[in-house]
Amino acid sequence: MFESAKFEHRLDKASFKTLEPALREDLLNAQFQLIDQKRRSLLVLIHGPDGSGKGAVLNRLYGWLDARKLRTLTYDAPTTNALTHPPAWKYWRDLPGYGEIGIMLGSWYQTALVDRALGKIGRSAFTATLEGVRRYEAMLEAEGVSILKLWLYLGADEAQARLKALEKGQYARPVVRQWTEVDTAKERERLWNAAEEVVRLTSTPAAPWHVVPAVDGEYRDAMAGTVLLDMLRAMDTAPAPDPAPRPPPANPAEVPHGLPQFSILSTLDLSKALDEKTYREDLSAAQHRITRLTTAPAFEKRGLVVVFEGSDAAGKSSAIMRLRHALDPRRFRVHPVAAPSDEERARPYLWRFWRRIPALGHTAIFDRSWYGRVLVERVEGFCSPADWGRAYGEINDFEDELTSAGYIVVKFWLAISPEEQARRFEARETIAYKRFKLTPEDWRNREKWPLYEAAVTEMVDRTSTTAAPWTMVEAEDKLYARVKVAKTVADRLEAALGR
User: Fold this and answer.
1) CB-based contacts of 9: which residues, under 8 Å, 6+ apart?
2) Do 4-237 and 253-497 share a fold?
3) Predicted confidence band at 164 (pLDDT cuts at 50, 70, 90)?
4) Sign of the dihedral through C-alpha 428, 430, 432, 433
5) Compositional bias of type Pro residues: which residue ranges (predicted)?
6) Contact predicate 318/478, CB 8 Å
């Protein structure tokens, strides 16, 4: 994979000085186009052996570009905050907005490469990790984040010679060290082989690796700048996204086909109910279990993410209120999810949820969630079928990362009948302190009930997993629904904590 880079590539200082002014001007013009259009953002990943000039390339790009829309993203020793969140959290947290460029020294490839070099993971685990990275990068690309990946190449002997010079303090400027853990000759050989696998297995049409010969600094910097210019120009010529809402899909109940439309909601027994005495006893017992479990020492290394979705007026807020009563108010947050802000629209749709993932030992409750992509955005035509169609896999990957990091993901759909919803809407209109909960859109959305039923059925089918299953809650009786929610959370905590 590095064959061409093994040959000598040099650029004398006079030639570099001749080409640099035009390259700088073109880079600035292309960057200004990116800033003005605000259609996409760009991540530049810089990797390579220690001593290959990663820091020098970074500084050169800062000299050539408008630094006001340029961000350096570094991931050396993990911070305390990063250690209490899933591994991907820090990358999502730092994603630049549309019109901006982020330059990453140490990316999502870093840990996998080091672990492979040190023999902590085998080849199958390594390639499985890289497959996850491919899916992650494909999702970023589809969501408006372009990725430029640079591997600064040095031969093994040259890299070792520079490393020895570095250890003797023969470099006047700071050197970016990424591979300090890789110490022995065997480990360095494994790292080299792993790097070739990374380039081979994660070079895609949208995000290929560019191998930059790094023996000569002028050639290295000129090539890095040229490749960056090509990427910015390609981003400028990419078709602009269509900002207009798309027509909603056809009503499934009106589309002729050979089989009747199935709805998972139709399988629920909405007549389930509890009397007041049983409700109070069962709810109190479940709340005590939740309190005991979320304050136990074992929970310090876990986290709880609770998702509430459901029909309008199904009782999400009242169920959340009863759940809150069981939690330490210092260690949980409720996140009501509405239409995205301008800041959130300038990034992939999952960004605003990743940044709200709690630290280990804490709880986050989402009143509506990332499932809006496959529910309201699908039904209202706010995104294309291609967008919501790929979202199922992206959401599964997201939740898999959470559960792999120790989080317990509990998902509820609260279901009521159309008739009960109409009664609750009418009641809200007559109660002053509940009027804010009702909008004209709520009444209008009732006309799309069959569309939402179809969307819910597919959502449950495609995102109810062993680690993060959906719990369907019969919510016609609010007392029954609140108890089922609390009991389910307590049961999931007990199963996860082994208590």
Assistant:
1) 213, 215, 216, 219, 223
2) yes
3) confident
4) negative
5) 240-251
6) yes
Residue 207 CA: distances (Å) to CA of 52, 137, 140: 22, 8, 10
H or E element that contains 150: strand 145-153
Q: Are strands 41-47 and 101-105 parallel, antiparallel or unpaired?
A: parallel
Question: The domain 253-497: what is its CATH number?
Answer: 3.40.50.300
| Per-residue confidence band for 183, with pLDDT thresholds at 50, 70 and 90 | confident
Helices (H) and strands (E) in the chain, counts: 19, 10
pLDDT in tens, 81-126: 888 999 999 999 999 999 999 999 989 999 999 999 999 999 999 9
Q: Domain residue spans in the chain?
A: 4-237, 253-497
Q: Which helix (H) or strand (E) holds 15?
A: helix 13-37
User: Is residue 295 scored above 70 in pLDDT?
Assistant: yes
Q: What is the 3-state secondary structure (H, E, C) of 458-474?
A: HHHHHHCCCCCCEEEEE
Average pLDDT for 226-246: 81
The answer regarding whether domain 4-237 maps to CATH 3.40.50.300 reads yes
In angstroms, how far is CA 246 from the centroid of its own chain?
Answer: 25
Angle formed at CA 95 by CA 358 and CA 193, multiple of 5 degrees: 100
pLDDT at 442 over 90: no
